Amino acid sequence: MSSPKRRIETDVMKLLMSDYEITLVNDNMQEFYVRFHGPAETPFEGGVWKVHVELPDQYPYKSPSIGFMNRIFHPNIDELSGSVCLDVINQTWSPMFDMINIFEVFLPQLLRYPNPTDPLNGEAAALLMREPKNYDAKVKEYVRKYATKESADAVGAEDGEDGEGEESEEEEMSDVGSFSEEEAAGDMEL
């Protein structure tokens, strides 16, 4: 039917025309950032994350790589690298899905229904299984500290960003979200 390049353009254009805030990397439609908001009625509600997306040349036949740039406390997301453990999506990924599905279905479901039996963050998994109320409290603490609009804007930003009042925390966040080319955040496939 249509070539993968055309499909990439179509899916990214749909995402650009949606309500999501998208930032293309070097005007490249295969690599971009999406501002993602935590789902309502979860401890992630009110959180804002900068999510890195990379589409392989074989997209949509191969799933995109997704990673959180600012910190998040979740059993299936590596706290420091932002890599997302999405084995379920990998197993269910189909060319029928598009980028809108990632941000409206897959990621909200992952945050809503974590799988502590297959963790990337053992501390979060153990806390969720043993003390769910303390898990919720820690998630909310991370949302307050690391998942603000300002944190999402600052993470991975080049020097020269001026944060008023919270400069030291924003600098700390930028360091957390800065990775060498060898360990790019979130190069975990869906």
UniProtKB/TrEMBL annotation:
Bias (Acidic residues) ranges: 156-190
InterPro entries referenced in this protein's UniProt entry, alphabetically: UBC (IPR000608), UBQ-conjugating_AS (IPR023313), UBQ-conjugating_enzyme/RWD (IPR016135)
UniProt-annotated catalytic positions: 85 (glycyl thioester intermediate)
PROSITE patterns: UBC_1, UBC_2
Keyword ATP-binding part of the UniProt annotation: yes
Superkingdom: Eukaryota
Annotated family: Belongs to the ubiquitin-conjugating enzyme family.
Protein name in the entry: Putative ubiquitin-conjugating enzyme e2-23 kDa
